[in-house]
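Input structure tokens:
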């Protein structure tokens, strides 16, 4: 990379990095880049290597192989304090004996900042997170959301090139988490700073990110904009992890673009066909399925079923429908888009070919057919 044009401030590159702990490979030959000024989320389940990736960026872990670049410079061997990076953790690690202002000023003092800079930058950082009126309080006098804001101010006061955030909202309740998501995105846009955000919460990643890097078992399996990750998942794992999904397992037809079960056929608009008679998985989003009580002729992408459960979720309704062939479909639509049906009613489900994603089925990509038990609403009106 040394022969390239100067890199923009806040650009990050992980080049073939791996990290092992004994016999466990936490990160496996990972190539990943964050663009200057973007909000990049690293998304995946527990144990997929996302926090280890963040720690290698920060300098808390050294890769066993590969290189880490910041602003076009190789920083693989630099300690954390010599990288223009700050980190916000899930557990905010505020100093309990210091005031809010003292916590925020700590990093500046460590870098030998002048008194004038402390007097100007600390209030400015606290103002960014709407905590300037609480400068003299101590952490135990603050709510969880307020402590999170102080941790953010402390990380931002030095104006680092890159801010790393390791599940920083994980300890907050849902309502407060939603408000803090809005604040994080506002701050990132206001500052034009590169944010690299680790989370296992798919909704959080979809809401905040310019791009999402999905990891599985230490490897990057897909990188793209939220719309691309959601609408065009590269693997069955991504399809199932990002958003809710219906999975139907069967065998590919002779055209390689249809999947057949004992009592159903699913057709897709696939660019490439799959081997006829090989095993596959069809993925269909719950919001892509239309439901009607009007009888329909059987055929591809049409299934007759019995409503097994119904739940009202704010402005949307979720149905679980048992259909022939042992398949269970979850449907989630706005209330005006679904007929008013009770458990036990017969309905017909249909969806477009464009809404279907097909995948080869293997031990790594097998998924349960239909809605998961956790998503199944109770059998009541």
């Amino acid at each position: 990379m040394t022969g390239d044009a100067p890199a923009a401030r806040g650009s990050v590159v992980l080049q073939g990095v791996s990290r092992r702990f004994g016999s466990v490979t936490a990160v496996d030959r990972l190539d990943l880049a964050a663009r200057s000024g973007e909000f990049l989320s690293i998304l995946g389940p527990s144990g997929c290597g996302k926090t280890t990736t963040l720690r290698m960026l920060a300098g808390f872990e050294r890769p066993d192989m590969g290189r880490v670049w910041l602003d076009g410079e190789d920083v693989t061997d630099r300690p954390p304090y010599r990288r223009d990076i700050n980190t916000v953790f899930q557990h905010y690690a505020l100093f309990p004996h210091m005031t809010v202002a003292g916590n925020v000023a700590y990093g500046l003092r460590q870098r030998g900042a002048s008194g004038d800079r402390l007097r100007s930058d600390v209030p400015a950082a606290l103002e960014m997170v709407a905590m300037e009126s609480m400068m003299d309080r101590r952490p135990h006098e603050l709510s969880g959301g307020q402590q999170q804001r102080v941790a953010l101010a402390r990380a931002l006061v030095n104006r680092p090139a890159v801010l790393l955030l390791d599940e920083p909202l994980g300890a907050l309740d849902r309502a407060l988490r939603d408000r803090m998501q809005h604040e994080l995105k506002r701050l990132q846009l206001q500052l034009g700073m590169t944010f690299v955000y680790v989370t296992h919460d798919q909704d959080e990643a979809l809401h905040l990110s310019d791009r999402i890097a999905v990891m599985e078992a230490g490897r990057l399996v897909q990188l793209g904009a939220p719309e691309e990750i959601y609408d065009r998942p590269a693997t069955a794992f991504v399809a199932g992890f990002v958003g809710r999904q219906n999975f139907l397992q069967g065998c590919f037809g002779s055209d390689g673009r249809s999947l057949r079960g004992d009592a159903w056929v699913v057709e897709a608009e696939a660019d490439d066909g799959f081997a006829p008679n090989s095993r596959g998985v069809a993925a269909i989003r719950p919001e892509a399925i239309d439901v009607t009580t009007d009888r329909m002729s059987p055929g591809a992408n049409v299934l007759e079923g019995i409503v097994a459960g119904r739940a009202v979720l704010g402005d949307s309704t979720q149905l679980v429908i048992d259909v022939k062939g042992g398949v269970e479909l979850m449907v989630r639509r706005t209330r005006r888009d679904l007929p008013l049906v009770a458990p036990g009613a017969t309905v017909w489900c249909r969806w477009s070919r464009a809404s279907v994603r097909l995948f080869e089925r293997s031990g790594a990509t097998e998924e349960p057919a239909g809605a998961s038990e956790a998503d199944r609403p109770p059998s009541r009106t």
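The two ends are 61 Å apart (CA to CA). DSSP finds eight helices and 20 strands in the chain.
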